[in-house]
Every structure is written in C-alpha cells, then in structure tokens.
Write a structure and sequence with these properties.
Strand order of the largest sheet: 3-2-1-10-9-8-7-6-5-4
CATH class: Mainly Beta
Number of strands: 10
Radius of gyration: 22 Å
Helix content: 25-40%
CATH architecture: Clam
Distance between the termini: 76 Å
Oligomer: single chain
Number of helices: 3
CATH topology: outer membrane lipoprotein receptor (LolB), chain A
Length: 227
C-alpha cells in the first residue's frame, strides 16, 4: 500500500513538471520571437554590406560585395556592388560550357544566400513553432550562461537548427543549421553581435558544403542607419 501511495503522488508531480517545462518553452519562444521582430523592425532602418568569398579545395573561386537592406516584409534585398571570378576565360564550346557552369554556380550561391537569410530572419510564427518543437539545455564550458535551443524540421522537414541564446537579452549569439540546397547537404554557422543603440545583427556566416569541399564565408559590414 505504501508503494501504491508513492506512485499515486509521484505521477501527478511528473505530469505537472512536464507541463511546466512545456509552458516555460512556449513562454520563452514567444518572448524570443517578440525580441527578434523588434530587432528586425530596427534593422529595416539600416543598410549594410556583405563581403563573400567562395573557396573550393582551398582555392579562392569567387569574391563579391553586396549591398543589403530589409524591405517592409522583412525580406532581404541585395544588390551586387563588385565581384570577381577567378577563372580563365575559355574559347568555343569549352567557353560556353564554362559560362554555363558559372551561371549555375551563381544561381546556387543565390539559393544558399536566400536559405541563410531565411534562418537568420525567421518570422514570428516560425520562431514560435521552432520553440514548440525544440529541446532546451543549459550551455556548459565556453557556452556557460547561454541557452542552447535545438529543433528538427524547422523550415523544411529534414533540417536541424540550433540557437545559442543569451537569456538576459534574448539575443542569439550563434545559429547553426543543417539543410539541403539543390540536393547538396550544407552546414551553416552564423555569428551575431549587437550594434550600439541598435539591433543584434549577423557579423559572420560560414557555409560548408562537404560534397565538393566548398566553403562560403560572408562578413557583414558597415551597418548604417538610413537618413
């Protein structure tokens, strides 16, 4: 009888603990989403540059600089300011094949940039859904004091996203994601920093494409408030 009474008392306690944990995650997700949306509204007042370098098998293939801003919908608008492709121009059919390869590579980079932007600038609903399905753990070691939030199936069914969040400011210091673009696995890492009297912004993004030993590194620079 004593064992039965113990079970009767302990089961409701476990249920209440689990429910409280779920509620905490939901509350944190809603608060985080609100902070991110407020930051995006601030960022709409800014313009900035991103300098990208693409390397493959250790060799620089492409470098370009892009002007960026957010439109009214929170979508990133980009315009290439300067760029350089490190490839010798070939003639004839080989040249046409080279042009096709360069065009396909440029289209792929556009998709990777759009994918990266989608993880950086998630909508309020996407952020709330992310926390609804996420596991939250306390950071240890170099991550002590941070909250690590990880979920699968965030923007697409097969992706995995992890965010390092400062519980005091609800700003991410880092986001890591794994997803697929054009059938290729990509691994992304985005580091953030706060602007003085401004929003928390990305400072560096690194994309790894293991299948062809390609790296795409982007530094975010010159955040300026529009007049």
């Amino acid at each position: 009888m004593q064992i039965q009474r113990f079970i009767v008392f302990i089961v409701p306690a476990l249920v209440l603990t689990a429910a409280a944990g779920a509620q905490d995650a939901a509350d944190l997700g809603l608060s985080y989403a609100k902070v991110q949306q407020a930051g995006m509204e601030q960022l709409k007042q800014y313009t900035w540059q991103s300098a990208t370098r693409v390397t493959r098998e250790g060799k620089i293939k492409t470098e370009f600089t892009v002007a960026n801003r957010l439109n009214g919908k929170g979508e990133m608008v980009q315009e290439v300011e300067e760029g350089e492709v490190n490839a010798r121009k070939k003639r004839g059919m080989r040249g046409r094949s080279q042009d096709k390869q360069l065009s396909e590579a440029a289209a792929f980079l556009d998709k990777v940039a759009a994918t990266t932007g989608a993880y950086i600038f998630m909508s309020k609903g996407q952020e709330v859904d992310f926390f609804d399905k996420a596991a939250i753990t306390a950071g240890a070691g170099a991550d002590a004091g941070m909250q690590l939030v990880q979920a699968k199936g965030v923007l697409v069914a097969t992706d995995v996203v992890t965010k390092w969040i400062d519980p005091a400011t609800l700003h991410p210091s880092k986001i890591v994601f794994e997803t697929v673009v054009d059938g290729l696995d990509i691994q992304g890492e985005v580091l953030f920093r706060p602007i003085e009297d401004g929003p928390n912004v990305p400072r560096m993004a690194t994309i790894t494409i293991p299948a062809d030993d390609r790296f795409i590194e982007t530094e975010f620079l010159n955040f300026k408030k529009a007049l």
